[in-house]
Amino acid sequence: MSAPAITMDVRRIGDEVAVVDIKGDVTAACEPVLMSAYEAASDGKTTRLVLNFAGLEYMNSGGIGMLVTLLVRANRQRQQLAAFGLTEHYREIFELTRLDEAIAIYDSEEAALDGIGDRR
Amino acid sequence: MTETAGPDRVRSPEQIGLSAREAAAPPVPEDQKESPRNAASWAKKVERLEVDPRQGVRGTNVAGRRLTGPVQGFGKMWQKSYRMKAPPGTTPEQAIATWKEHFPEFWPKGNRFAGALTGINPGDVALLDLAIGGGVKLSTGVFVLYADAESFTLMTPQGHMFAGWITFSAEREGAQDGAQDGPQDGGETTVQALVLMRANDPLYEIGMMFGGHRKEDKFWAATLTALGRRLGVADPTVETKTTCVDTKRQWRHANNIWHNSAIRSVFQTLGAPLAGLARLFRHENQAT
């Protein structure tokens, strides 16, 4: 069996923050994986969710659509979303699709954890 | 000080639907991560749309507009898929190449899509005239956000009926394990139009509630049927699936109505004779 095209590792940072480390290809096909990761990250009192794209290798428009769906679910739970680790290319894609207006983008995990706390 | 608990690993169970070709693709070396393998498939960033005049369409309500995604829309958020099986032996690449090449021809009568002469490429802006009844054409446009051999995505500008994007794609389903994608792999190709959208403003939302969704469903079903006939399907059957992703309306975006292209198109249609007279008058003044 060949290696999976994507993995999403969930790390908890205290009670209220979870970081999802995304490694691989983000396409519409990985929606079950992302949603499972979201469920794992949303256990308990999570109010802030940080997506780590440092391991992102590829994302198509289906992947962007899937992030919008994730955003809706997070908004429903009154959770904030942030992202870091995006390459310049994918940062521009977030800006082009105006996803950056809903998912705050940071340069590093530290900045994301600080920033998303300040936005509360 | 932050404390980090151990990871809960979530893995895809079985290549989560990737094609054999995608799964077999070599991993991207570390030193190439700055230019992803699909970088050329994405449009370059634009702040506002720029357009050239095109024959056969009015071409208004697009230049200077910003793009709008589902985040910027007003109404409930919907995901709609329209799917159809391509004839046996058709590869996803062939289906998408045909779709791109003849895209305007598949549109239902009375609607016009004026794209770039070079086809459908990332960053292109196409101008649209859409029949909305009463002899009025709604003039708007779309931006080609993404295009590769197996899919392309169009995104809408301010003033369009909806804020969001439509992805047209084709994929191979049911292929035998280990077989290369192609006519002999035992699978079949399915083509799909996937819409992720919110009505752009309150007026459009009312329109969608009272017949707009039905009209849109008919539009894309007719488009896929025309594509199916071109691909050689004798009796194309389109399967439609609609999901309300978010029942909430985003009232903070109600003022999107300022850009409403339907309202502007009505005024542009009514004002066309006066504008023509004014042009004629100016021309005669310059001649004398």
What does this structure look like?
The complex is a heterodimer of chains A (120) and B (288). The relative contact order of chain A is 0.17. Chain A has helices at residues 31-41, 61-76, 88-96, 109-118, and strands spanning 6-13, 17-26, 48-59, 80-84, 104-106. The model of chain A has no long low-confidence stretch (mean pLDDT 91). Chain A is built from 4 helices and 5 strands, in the order ββαβαβαβα. In chain A, strands 1-2-3-4-5 form a 5-stranded mixed sheet, sandwiched between helices. Chain A has a single domain (6-118), classed as STAS domain (Transcription Regulator spoIIAA, 2-Layer Sandwich), CATH 3.30.750. By secondary structure, chain A is of the alpha/beta class. In chain A, a hairpin with a 3-residue loop joins β1 (6-13) and β2. Chain B has 288 residues and is of the alpha+beta class. Chain B has one domain (52-174, 185-266): Alpha-D-Glucose-1,6-Bisphosphate, Chain A, domain 4. Helices cover 25% and strands 26% of the residues of chain B. Chain B has helices at residues 20-24, 92-101, 202-231, 261-287, and strands at 8-11, 67-68, 77-85, 112-114, 125-131, 137-147, 151-157, 162-173, 188-199, 239-246. In chain B, strands 2, 3, 4, 5, 6, 7, 8, 9 and 10 form a 9-stranded antiparallel sheet that branches. The longest helix of chain B has 30 residues, at 202-231. Chain B starts with 7 loop residues before the first strand and ends with a helix. In chain B, 37% of the residues are buried. The model of chain B is unreliable at 1-7 and 10-25 (pLDDT under 50). Classes of the chains: A alpha/beta (120), B alpha+beta (288). Chains A and B meet through β1, α1, β3, α2 and α3 of A and β1, α1, β2, β7 and β8 of B.
